[in-house]
Amino acid sequence: MNPTHEVFNQPAPLVDTNLFATNRAMQAALKLNAPALDTAPLRALGAVVGSGEMQAHARLANVHTPQLKTHNRLGQRVDQVEFHPSYHALMSAAVHAGLHGTAFSAEQQATGHAHQLRAAGFMLFTELEPSILCPISMSYAVAPALKDNPAIYNDWEGGLTSRAYDPALKVWRDKAGLTMGMGMTEKQGGSDVRANTTRAEPAGTDAWGQRFSVTGHKWFFSAPMCDAFLILAQTASGLSCLFLPRVLPDGSMNRLFIQRLKDKLGNKANASSEVEFAGASAWLVGEEGRGIPQILAMGTLTRLDCALGTSGLMRQALSIALHHTAQRKAFGKTLIDQPLMKNVLADLALESEAATALALRLARSFDRADDAHEQVMNRLLTPVAKFWICKRGSHFAQEAMECLGGNGYVEEGGEGVMARIYREMPLNSIWEGAGNIMAIDLLRALRKADAAAALAHELAPARGMHAALDRLAAQLPIRVEEMASEMEARRLAQDVALAVQAALLAQTAPAAVFAAFCDSRIGGAWGHSFGSLGAGVDHDAILERAMPH
């Protein structure tokens, strides 16, 4: 059959590009926050995650989603989740890059910038495939918490920091690498974990300390094929943190039963589940009755990953939009040369660079835990970055998708990933505390006596560089000290985020980027949608910096 027409004016896919080498915003942010950082591992990872081979794995892992097998052919319970081989290829690449617990290894900690290296790598990998990073992120957050049970930590630390991926369901001592998950929320409580009803009864002591028998359920239990989980359960002393392995030390299966997998909007390659415990064995981690503080400490790390992940997705969506519009022609010009499209793309580029700057600034505070100022900024910026960056994600993805027109809305093909990005964006805003939880957490952080002074110090490098920023910077410490009511907490979180982003861009970005960001986000020369920057903005300079080539 002869073709009826020749296909032309269709952009080639963005493939086989080094995602680190072309990300100038990331490079500038790392230069500010970790000037001595060796970026060679990031350049190597950038080539891997930008490759066509790995992009194919990302597509297949989302098309062939996880399948739950509750029983075998003989009717015996097995409670296993089967994944497509591409899922395992992606997990292997992420573990090999050290994006899980490797940052807590003695070797990485000695560098002084383990968390920033890992943060940048996490952002790059998100551009490839974000959903498999759920067990990676939880393994990262859980690793330091296990130190509250030295016996378990001594046995599991090597596997959790290993760069080997081992998906086999075996006892921990027989595996080359280990991953961990979490089980906190229940049907009746959600974010209010104090409402949990799962109970843990004492069942003796052994080499891992106090052992409990756990009965109850978890409503969201992500990555159920991880090797172990930290869960919350009610003990005689109150809500406590417990370590629950899939395979017990004697090699038998723990009494954890997967009821079903969640049918989610996005995050398709990752298995999120509902589970029940029927006398499952678990061991106390930390002080009995002190589960809430422990889970909050882990939540700080996963909230960092939410900000990093959304920043990575923004960069991916922007890169695809820039790549497409630089090739596609309409009305006699490439799309990127059309004035309104140029405005939209430049506006998206500002948002992406500001998100990258704030997320990597937050990562710096995790590398400087012994610095008093960094401790305060960690407490302030964790809810701020999680709230603001993630809240901007869905709007950003929709606008970037629109740059591709109908091609962006279609699933298949190289640019079909835009639909996947759009479905993924709401997750980071909801997971680990939705917007209201983050805004309230900021109010808790402001109870620190030195919060206002720390914020003023953080904004000082940009003093005198933009009038609108100066006005906001002068107001914020007063608002912080007055501790705005809960009704105004979201507005305060937004304004702190914008001020810190502007101060960071003053130190890392070209003048055109800094000025346009301040004029629009802080000075009011902006509308209610992307693409409403003023005519005097240097759009070309902003786009040149953001191009993915």
Describe the structure.
The protein has 3 domains: 24-66 and 80-140 and 154-167; 173-289, Butyryl-CoA Dehydrogenase, subunit A, domain 2 (Beta Barrel), CATH 2.40.110; 293-546, Up-down Bundle (Butyryl-CoA Dehydrogenase, subunit A, domain 3). Helices cover 50% and strands 14% of the residues. It has 19 helices and 11 strands. The strands form 3 sheets. Strands 3, 4, 5, 6, 7, 8 and 9 form a 7-stranded mixed sheet that branches. A two-stranded antiparallel sheet has the order 1-2. Helix 10 (339-367) packs antiparallel against helix 11. The model has no long low-confidence stretch (mean pLDDT 94).
Short structural summary:
With 549 residues, this protein is of the alpha+beta class.
Q: Which terms would index this structure?
A:
Butyryl-CoA Dehydrogenase, subunit A, domain 2; alpha+beta; seven-stranded mixed β-sheet; two-stranded antiparallel ribbon; 549 residues; 11 strands; Butyryl-CoA Dehydrogenase, subunit A, domain 3; single chain
> What's the gyration radius in Å?
24 Å
Shape: globular
| Count, helices | 19
* Overall number of domains: 3
Topology as a string of helices (H) and strands (E): HHHEEHHHHHEEEEEEEHEEHHHHHHHHHH
**How many strands, which pairing sense, and closed or not: the largest β-sheet?**
7 strands, mixed
CATH A-level architecture of the largest domain: Up-down Bundle
